[in-house]
Amino acid sequence: MQEKVVAILEEIKQSSAENAAQLEQYRLRFISKKSVITELFGELKHVANDKKREVGQQLNELKNEAQQKFKKLIAQLDDQQTANESIGIDVSLPDGGQELGGVHPLNYIRFKIIEIFERIGFNVSDGPEIEDDWHNFSALNFPENHPAREMQDTFFIERDPDILLRTHTSNVQVRLTENQKPPIRSIMPGRAFRNEAISARAHCVFHQVEGLYIDKNVSFVNLKQTLYHFAKEMFGKHTEVRFRPSYFPFTEPSAEIDISCQICHGDGCQLSKFTGWVEIAGSGMVDPNVLENCGIDPDEYTGFAFGMGIERISQLKFRVNDLRLYTENDVRFLKQFRTLH
Ligand code: DAH
Asked: Distance from the CA of 178 to the center of ligand 1, in angstroms?
C-alpha cells in the first residue's frame, strides 16, 4: 500500500497540463470519484487495524497533494491562455494555410494590351504624370479656350505658368516625338487624372494606353489595320470592328473605334445604349500642327495615334460595371481574378 502511495505521489509531481484535454486527464486519474486515490481509500478496509490510522493519514495527505497540484495546473493553463489572447493568438484554431495573391484586373488588361502591340513591333514608353500646359494641351493643338483646360476638368498644381496632373496619356506622344527621330512605334500606358466626382461611372484617377506610329508613308489604312488586329486579339476573332468619324484636336481625320457589344452581341443592352456597338478607343492621323510642334517635318512624315481606357476594356472583358471596385481593394472582388496570369 505504501509503495503505491509513494508511486502515485511521484506521478502527481511529474504531471503537467499544456491544454484542457491534459488537465481533464489529470482530473480523471487523481481527483474524480474513479481516481486511483479513491481506489486506494477503498482498499483501506484490508489494512490491518493497527495501521489503519497511519495509512488513512497518508492517503489524506496524498489526496491533498493531488488537489493542490490540480489547482496549480488550472492556474498555469489560465495564465497561458490570457497571454495568448493578449497577443491575438488562438492556439486552438486550425492553421489557415497559405493564400496566393492574384493579378489586379487593370494590370492584367495593361499587360495584355502591351503583349498584343509588342508582337507587332511597338515598344513601351513612359512619361510624367505631373505635366506643363505645353505637353498636355498646347503642343497637342488644343485651342486656347478649349473646355478641357478649364478648372472643372483639370487638376492644376500651379497657375501661370500652368502645372497640372495630366488629363490623358497623350502628353507622352509629345515628349516622345520631341526627343526621338522617326520611325516611332510606341505604346504608352499610364494613369490620367480629371476633376470628376467619384461614382460608378466616373473616377478622378483612371488608366489609359496611348499609341503612336510615325514614319514615312504611314496612312489611315495602317491605323485601321493595326486597331482592327488589336480588337480581334483582345476580344476574339468573331468580334466586329467599325470606325466612326469623330473629332480630336490632335488628329485629323479622327475616328472612334467601336466593337460589337460583348454583352448583348448586337441584340441591344444598356451598355451599348441599344445599338449593339460599344466604343473602345479614340484615334486618328496625327495633325500636321502637332508634328510641327514637336520638331518633325509633316511633309516628310505622317503618323497615327490612338488612346484607350484600360477600365473600359476591363469592363467589356470582365463586366465590371462600377469603377470604384478597382480601387477599394475588397478581397471579395480581387479574389475573383485569382486565376488570371
Ligand atoms: N486623349 C484622348 C482622351 O483622353 C484619347 C485619344 C483619342 C488619344 C484619339 C489619341 C487619339 O491619341 O488619337 O480622351
From this structure: 18
